[in-house]
Amino acid sequence: MIGEHHSSKQYDQELEAIRSKVLLMGGMVETQYEEAINCFKVGDAAKADKVMADDHAVNQLEVQLDDACSHLIVRRQPAANDLRTVMATIKVITDLERIGDEATKIARTSKSLHARGSIGFAHYDMVRTIARAASDQLHDALDAFARLDGAQALQLIAADEVVDHEFRSVLRNLITFMMEDPRTISSALDTLWVAKAIERIGDHAKNIAEYVIYVVEGRDIRHMAKPGAGSETANG
């Protein structure tokens, strides 16, 4: 019994060390995203380059964490809720890495957009609302993961429609600009690319919230219809 207790304590310590690094990674991609949005706003090429360079560190951390999780499974052979926690953590790591990728896309597109000069419309105002909504979503998802707060995770999942609605609004507005002035087509398409990246960041944040539910309640709610709705809610 003493050996089992010692082993369990070691497992808890190793898992907590992994969770701490996951939250560090979350902070990194959160910063990456905020800086990418600022690049889109002001056209800072140097900062855009930094966002793209920072993606390498995020990718390296993903590899390290995946390896740590794999070794934890092999050494400790967790079962039941412990195994759910490790498997969910692996999925969270993947979503965080993809958020970093989307932030890199925003930075790269921002650099290209501003390098070309004339835009013809307030490109940042076009995405301001969706950018803030996705930022809040990401922050809340990381907070729910840190505290394993199932109630907060459920609220976040329900709020995902706000980001989806804002993306549809951005799309309609950009189509109007392109139809009224064909000279804005190139800039409008870049802005649409940024808005889509932001929408995908919201999707990944929602995924993280779904994994929190999986850990806390043991339910996999991906691809489940919203209450009272006939459509799927998860991106998978």
From TrEMBL:
- Domain called PhoU: residue spans: 23-108, 128-212
Q: Which InterPro entries match?
A: PhoU, PhoU-like_sf, PhoU_dom
> Where is this protein localized, as stated in its record?
Cytoplasm
Top-level taxon: Bacteria
Chief subcellular site? Answer: cytoplasm
Keyword hit for Glycosyltransferase: no
What keywords is this UniProt entry annotated with? Cytoplasm, Phosphate transport, Transport
- Subunit and interaction comment: Homodimer.
Read off the PANTHER family from this record: PHOSPHATE-SPECIFIC TRANSPORT SYSTEM ACCESSORY PROTEIN PHOU
* Function, as annotated: Plays a role in the regulation of phosphate uptake.
Q: Which family does it belong to?
A: Belongs to the PhoU family.
- Specify the protein name: Phosphate-specific transport system accessory protein PhoU
Give the originating organism: Massilia terrae
